[in-house]
């Protein structure tokens, strides 16, 4: 799809990853000036350098002072901020265990990025939006924020928090012209999922078909398919969508695909 995002400024967190890069490319292609934000500063600097009108910045979404400073830098350069995509997120690779043995340090690490990070960036990004009484906040949650899975208590709790934080933003900010919505991806091809599932040496490669048996389309999604959903919510035409949670999951949440 195409959308008119001319003169819009968009901030995308987690921009160094596959999904973040696809989102940035889609927004830039449709006319937005894109701020690539990530802890991998060199990567986003290179990506921004190859994108007209873009800016690459280091941002640790769990660091309040750093987040506030980056938002101020964006406004100083562009004069406004119109679109925020809270895409930065992590999960655990090593600790796929039940809650009774799940490390507290790992819980804290995931919650700080996946939930507190969304809160912090939304907190500071909403301020320039409020000045213009216009803006879009698009949060990337997960199907596991809607239907939890075993062995990922921190991730599922954080993503469920993102879902209801999005709804809270919708009812707090909607009357002031800021629309807040959420995308819940299913299993998407990324560096993380390749390391766990889809890579030849993935930790759980032997269980890929069992996992995909829950997905009617029978395949993982591409990062670009998440980017299309983000563009839809960022488009001017989506002006009456607020507080929505849109699964992009190949039908994962639609119901059982197997006999039982």
Protein architecture, described:
Helix 4 (104-132) runs parallel beside helix 5 (153-173). The protein contains eight helices and seven strands; from the N terminus they run βαβαβαβαβαβαααβ. Helix 4 (104-132) links the parallel strand 4 (83-86) and strand 5 (135-140). The chain is an alpha/beta fold. The chain folds into two domains: 9-186 and 223-250, NAD(P)-binding Rossmann-like Domain (Rossmann fold, 3-Layer(aba) Sandwich), CATH 3.40.50; 189-220, no CATH class.
Class computed from helices, strands and strand pairing: alpha/beta
- What is the CATH first-level class name of the largest domain? Alpha Beta
Poorly predicted runs of 5 or more residues: none
Distance between the termini: 39 Å
Largest sheet features: 7 strands, parallel
**Number of domains as seen in the coordinates:** 2
Strand content: 5-15%
Instruction: Give the name of the CATH architecture of the largest domain.
Output: 3-Layer(aba) Sandwich
Question: Could you say which overall geometry the principal axes of the C-alpha atoms support?
Answer: globular
Helix content: 40-55%
| Strand order in the largest sheet | 3-2-1-4-5-6-7
Q: Can you count the helices? A: 8
Helix-strand pattern: EHEHEHEHEHEHHHE
């Amino acid at each position: 799809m195409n959308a008119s995002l001319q003169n819009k400024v968009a901030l995308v967190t987690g921009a160094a990853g596959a999904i973040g890069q696809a989102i940035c490319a889609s927004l830039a292609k449709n006319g937005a000036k894109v701020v690539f934000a990530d802890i991998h500063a060199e990567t986003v600097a290179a990506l921004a350098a190859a994108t007209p009108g873009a800016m690459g910045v280091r941002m640790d979404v769990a660091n309040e002072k750093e987040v506030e400073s980056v938002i101020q830098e964006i406004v100083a350069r562009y004069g406004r901020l119109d679109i925020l995509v809270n895409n930065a997120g992590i999960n655990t690779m090593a600790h796929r265990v039940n809650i009774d043995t799940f490390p507290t340090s790992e819980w804290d690490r995931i919650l700080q990025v996946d939930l507190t990070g969304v809160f912090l960036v939304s907190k500071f990004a909403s301020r320039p939006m409020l000045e213009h009484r216009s803006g879009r906040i698009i949060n990337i949650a997960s199907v596991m924020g809607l239907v939890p899975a075993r062995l990922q208590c921190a991730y599922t709790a954080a993503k469920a928090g993102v879902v209801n934080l999005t709804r809270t933003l919708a009812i707090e900010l909607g009357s002031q012209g800021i629309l807040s919505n959420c995308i819940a991806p299913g299993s998407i091809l990324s560096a993380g999922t390749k390391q766990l599932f889809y890579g030849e040496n993935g930790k759980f490669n032997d269980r890929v078909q069992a996992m995909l048996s829950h997905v009617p389309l029978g395949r993982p999604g591409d990062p670009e398919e998440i980017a299309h959903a983000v563009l839809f919510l960022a488009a001017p035409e989506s002006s009456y969508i607020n507080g929505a949670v849109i699964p992009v999951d190949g039908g994962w949440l639609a119901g059982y695909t197997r006999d039982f």
